[in-house]
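Q: I have 476 residues here and want to know how they pack in 3D. Can you give me a structure?
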Amino acid sequence: MTADLSQLVKAYDVRGVVPDQWDETLAELFGAAFVQVTGADAIVTGHDMRPSSPGLSRAFARGAAARGVDVTEIGLCSTDQLYYASGAFGLAGAMFTASHNPARYNGIKMCRAGAAPVGQDTGLTEIRELVESWLDAKAEAATAQAATAQAPTAQAATAQAPVSDATPGTVVRRDTLQDYAAHLRGLVDLTSIRPLKVVVDAGNGMGGHTVPTVFAGLPLTLVPMYFELDGTFPNHEANPLDPANIVDLQKRVREEGADLGIAFDGDADRCFVVDERGEPVSPSAITALVAARELARYGGKGTVIHNLITSWSVPEVVRENGGTPVRTRVGHSFIKAEMAASGAIFGGEHSAHYYFKDFWNADTGMLAALHVLAALGGQEGTLSALVAQYDRYAGSGEINSTVDDQGARLAAIRAAYEGREGVTLDELDGLTVTAADWWFNVRPSNTEPLLRLNAEARDEQTMTRVRDETLKIIRA
């Protein structure tokens, strides 16, 4: 293993190939660094179904316990189940998952007590620097040994955190699945809904672990797909935002005559919905639907967060239901920070992440799914009819283009639109260009030489024109 932490530590989490980029030795260092940076005296850990996850999680716990910190291991869980434990127990937490990435990947999503995110600006940079310092110190020690003709043993060559004087902490196991399910069901009233038939595609991910318990006792006929926990993802990638990965779900919904279908990603913190025809429902429409329900629950007032590439329909629905929409950059750390700062009751993203005040401002696809079931089951119409009121515009979806120079292409787009009558530009996140009946946003990828285009208009013809005109500039 060659540890390059600049490639391993991302903006919001740790993520890389096991064992090529990281392994249990490095996971143990991350455990020690996590508790030192956060100052936590007790933590909670959980992991998904990937083959490497249990060992990485145990190693992280060892590193934390060696620093005198008590560790509660909740074992197999979804990411939002880990957030539940962090919030309910008031503990900093670490979830071992690589979400929708292929099987050879794994990662760590870290949070402070109350599920507050740990990202580059909130501790992750310091954690990386601390681990790097320990690795450097070990390398220097090994070099010194070699220079004096005392070749290091295999044990000596293993990087370790400096020995702590603290009494080692305890490591205990605790099952939280029932409590997690009860908490979610307490936030959405499903007791009086009409019976519904729902197909759920878990993608061999953690939805197969959580859905049976969360849905138990509800008036639902559940048709499970790929509920077997298998971190090799034998059926399809556990990324429902890729249309190729919901084809099986769409077909099954139509075959079963189901009322809807729900797909979860690998760690089950995101959900994607298809209607009774097997047609995808835009995450923006789901955001608007849930926002209306949450505003009603809060007496017709409250702040709702949405990122700048969700549909125009989202802020419109929020205002129509008495709320205040707040526009943010793309990314969960920005959403969660704005949720905390504004006291928002709900937030949604185009990527099917949904955030709830009553869930410690954390994202939970399962709670969003329960809201959809409650809304559909509380009336007699179809899901397609229900969401039509929230799906008002023609959108392009996200289109990625490989470019040689992100800055130059963005400058070319700015030059093409700047000064046009009735057009405004802003740079909250990339470049957003807005007119009376259309808008588009172009954002650079932080990790790849890509520009990401999202466009929307009041009709399909206008959206197509704007999309193609902008792509021509990007790909010139």
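Q: Anything worth noting?
A: The CA atoms of residues 120 and 292 lie 33 Å apart. Residues 124-147 form the longest helix (24 residues).
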